Amino acid sequence: MTVTDFSSALHAAFDAPDPREAVNRIKNVVANELSQTDARATVKKTDFFNHSFAPDLVLSWPNERERFVFLKSDTRPNILRDDVEAIRKHDPIVFALDPVVENPLIADETGPPARSDDTLLADARGMEVLIHSRHAEPVVGLASSAVLQGGRGLLTAREAETMAASVAAGFNGAQHLDATSTAAAVDEISGHFDKRRTSRLLRFLGAVWVGSGGAASNFPGEQDVTGDLDGTALEFLLELAPIEDFEFWRRIGRPLTLESISQLRVDNNSDNLQYLIGSNLDVLHARACRILERQQELGESESSEFRWNLEREMLCLRGPRSITYFAGKVDELKVDAQEADGISLQELLRRAEQRRIPISELELATPTRTVSYATVNRDDVAHDEELLKLSRTFSSTAYVQSAVASLFGSRPLVCDFLSRTGKGRTTAKFPLGTFAPTALSLLTSLTVEEQEALERVTRHYVVEQQQATLFSMEAMPATPVSGPALNPPSDRNEIEP
Fold first, then answer.
1. In terms of DSSP bridges, do strands 307-311 and 314-318 run parallel, antiparallel, or are they unpaired?
2. Which pLDDT does position 485 carry in this prediction?
3. Least packed by Cβ within 10 Å: which of 14, 58, 333, 377?
């Protein structure tokens, strides 16, 4: 909705013959304006209108405090100043239905000094500038969201233009370690937001600065920006145009956990999400996974590629024929298992040999009996002649119900083939760079193309220990291993989605 459209809609609302209908239409027009400024906000209408002490609208967000919105039609400075003075203790948004031409928040020369609080006085033109600016520069969306949650001072078209330009230039400056433009954005942010939103926005710029290779101590401004990115700031970062820089995403992602990423709301077409996960496969750990079969959706292009997605508040790896969900605990897997048959012993050994995964124990079953098999030392049983002899004594209906793979020497991964679920025994957790390919390779039958695609999606992961230690029960210090599929990106620090 443009300013002209807003004005027309507002005039049409005022012209409604029924006063109650006019008030309802006015609130709907303003609520739509606020929703476009921040799509994450929930806007609730009250039963009041143009009241001295009761808000017309209430804005709310998950895990954030509500904010009252008071609609004011009389924008004469003296009247508006009195209206603001009566409600400013609530740190509200005062939304002027007509353009504000003079700032009533500034005391005149003969009056008492202006109070310093977190009241925001905005008009439609200021909001419209933010709406249009976030379309041209998506990073401005972070500021527009913060404006509704904790903006303060005056926000007309001029202030909004300055804010939008400064935030966009500050983000670009932080990416290129330009202290001047970044410092200008820091000053602009510090003057127009409450302490919490100021801290959040500065942490965002600080994270981009550090992610781009700058030292935290050299970040412009005196504010402490060493805190982690909050979810909202990270979501905006992921929704920006692709940033094809391995080291940038690696620096951004080091403080993150699987749980924090699982709570994000991000478009699954985001290339930046692929970069973030792919660059941090060694620090993102999971204890459980569950694999569901899938069929290609209508209109979906045929591809053997795997992509990281966020679904059902879980991180998952979507492939051409399956979706693998990851969680910190088995009971946090928010998808029901698909019932499946076990696999033959020969098929299990083939899958394990393909990736050289040691199997320390397994459970064989027939329609009438079940046998658990493990060696005394819990070493690899894949080539155990006694196991092969035992399997030949069973009928052709024998299948493997479960198996235990030993990862990193001493971390057991229990694979349940009936539910296609993998989990660490006791408290064992695994980095996604190892967990994803191991679980998929053991719990499903991959084609050559899918195996190659799985290598590509985990290619930036550096294994914690050399493969030889996988057969040892004693944990050993991490030893990076490099190879053609594990080399870091090229000198340009670019990564593929």
1. antiparallel
2. 34
3. 377
Query: How would you classify residue 124: left for phi > 0, otherwise alpha for psi between -120 and 50, otherwise beta?
Result: alpha
Q: Return the SS3 of 19.
A: helix
Q: Which backbone phi and psi does 209 adopt, to 5 degrees? A: -60, -50
Give the long-range contacts of residues 77-84, CB within 8 A, separation 24 or more: 77/102, 77/103, 77/104, 78/104, 80/104, 80/121, 81/105, 83/52, 84/119, 84/121
**Is this model's pTM higher than 0.85 or not?**
no
How far is 291 from 337, CA to CA, in rounded Å? 8
Q: What are phi and psi of 203, to 5 degrees?
A: -65, -35
Read off the DSSP letter of residue 155.
E
The structure tokens listed for 110 are 């003969």
Name the helix (H) or strand (E) containing 186: helix 179-192
pLDDT in tens, 27-80: 999 999 999 999 889 999 998 886 678 899 999 998 789 999 999 988 888 898
pLDDT of 51? 67
Give the position of tokens 């924008």. 75
